[in-house]
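Deliverable D2.4 — example input (structure tokens):
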């Protein structure tokens, strides 16, 4: 039914959000490691 479709879409959006956050973390990690000694 319609609820199943909505649940699927929400689950996909959550996964997309998580993967975007992980990708950003991976991109920022080298920068953070470079800045850590300065802190």
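Example output (designed residues):
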């Amino acid at each position: 039914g319609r609820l199943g479709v909505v649940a699927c879409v929400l689950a996909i959006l959550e996964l997309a959000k998580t993967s975007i956050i992980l990708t950003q973390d991976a991109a920022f990690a080298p920068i953070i490691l470079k800045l850590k000694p300065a802190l």
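The mean pLDDT is 88.
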